[in-house]
Amino acid sequence: MIKHIVLWKLKSEAEGATAEENGKKIVEKFKALEGNVPGLVSIESGVDFNRSAAAWDVGLLTAFKTKADLDFYQDFPAHVEIKKFMAKVAADRCVIDYEV
To answer: How many CB atoms lie within 10 A of CB 49?
Structure first.
């Protein structure tokens, strides 16, 4: 099983919306992938409510059967569209991929 975790810090305003509004849009975009990407075992995303100095704004946790499934997801058309949106609204990103 492959875990793919991503965290983003969002721009305070981008694409005519606040960071909070864009965070909600991002979560909805990822929810729409559930059950629609071959090899994607699970997906969850959320907007941080803690707001501590160390917090990131949006998180994504996904699980894939294999690394090949993760690679397929990276180029899956609906995910590519999300990445285009993220490039406009995100200020920073961190990611980790690991096998369990």
So the answer is: 6
pTM: 0.94
pLDDT confidence of residue 100: 96
Q: What is the pLDDT of residue 51?
A: 87
Contact 57, 9 (CB under 8 A): yes
SS3 assignment, position 79: helix
DSSP string, 34-59: TTTSTTEEEEEEEE-SS--TT--SEE
CA distance to 11, 57, 70, per residue, from 33 (Å): 24, 20, 13
Q: Contact, 97 vs 3, CB < 8 A?
A: yes
Helix (H) or strand (E) run with residue 65 in it: none
Q: CB of 52 within 8 A of CB of 38?
A: no
pLDDT tens-digit series, residues 62-98: 999 999 999 999 999 999 999 999 999 999 999 999 9
